[in-house]
Amino acid sequence: MENTSQDKMNFFEFVFQDWQVNNGNIKGRIILLLFRMANFCARRRIYYYLGFLYLLFYRILVEWFFSIEIPWNTKIGRNLRLYHGQALVMTNQVIIGHNCTLRQSTTIGNRQSTNGFSTSPVIGNHVDVGSNVCIIGGITIKDHVKIGCGAVVVKSVSAYCVVTGNPGIERKRKDWQENDISE
Questions:
Q1: What's the pLDDT score for residue 163?
Q2: Is 146 helix (H, G, I), strand (E, B) or coil?
Q3: What span, in angstroms and rounded, lies between the C-alpha atoms of 74 and 170?
Q4: 6: how many CB neighbours lie within 10 A of its CB?
Q5: How far, in Å, CA of 55 to CA of 35, rounded?
Q6: Percentage helix, strand, coil for the chain under 3-state DSSP, each rounded to 5
Q7: CA–CA gap between residue 65 and residue 82 (Å, rounded)
Q8: What does the DSSP 8-state code read for residue 21?
Q9: How far is CA 97 from CA 6, 115, 135, 145, 183, in A?
């Protein structure tokens, strides 16, 4: 995921970049506004020191009161949709692309093995994640993927497919062609 366009945004463009896609979703708007403000501070060293109290406030409000763990230094692309944000958990190593959707009770993070912890998932652009989904391990979810409710994804996923089940099974969509979907 390329972050150069986000790094060039002014403060208001940066913190409101998810506002329009969450139209009618007050909770999603508030959580993502708070996240983007904290993420803005985390990305720029001078703001990190100036905004340290805000970062503490963000952690208490979002994690304790909203029960959502989106670390302020997580790399998330523009236009993230957040539906029913309860019980959403991810590590700060997760990378999420542009125009993605996350739903409630989703875990995105690393996996523990006998050798320690793996890296965290990298999620491409236009990925739609259903509720109660686990995406764990050093895997890559390519662009234009739909992950069904309750799926447990522990292997990398190709572009333009649907993943369902436990463990997640990749199913090609016959009605999708790479040329049909423009970015």
A1: 96
A2: strand
A3: 26
A4: 20
A5: 9
A6: 25, 20, 50
A7: 16
A8: G
A9: 12, 29, 15, 12, 12
Q: How many CB atoms lie within 10 A of CB 115?
A: 6
Return the structure tokens found at 174: 């016959």
Would you tell me how many other CB atoms lie within 10 Å of the CB of residue 161?
18
Q: What is the pLDDT along the chain (183 residues), one digit of tens a residue?
A: 445 567 678 888 999 999 999 999 999 999 999 999 999 888 777 777 778 889 889 999 998 998 999 999 999 999 999 998 789 999 999 999 999 999 999 999 999 888 888 899 999 999 999 999 999 999 999 999 999 999 999 999 999 999 999 999 998 765 555 544 444
DSSP character string of 77-123:
-SS-EE-S-TT-EE-TT-EE-SS-EE-SS-EEE--EETTEE----EE
32 φ, ψ (degrees, to nearest 5):
-70, -30
Burial of 98 (0-12, 13-18, 19+ CB in 10 A): buried
Instruction: Answer positive or negative: Cα dihedral of 91, 23, 3, 140.
Output: positive
Going by the DSSP 8-state scheme, the letter that residue 22 receives in this structure is G
Structure confidence at residue 47 (pLDDT): 78
Please give the structure tokens belonging to residue 164.
């369902």
Please state, in angstroms and rounded to a whole number, the distance separating the CA atoms of residues 74 and 42: 9
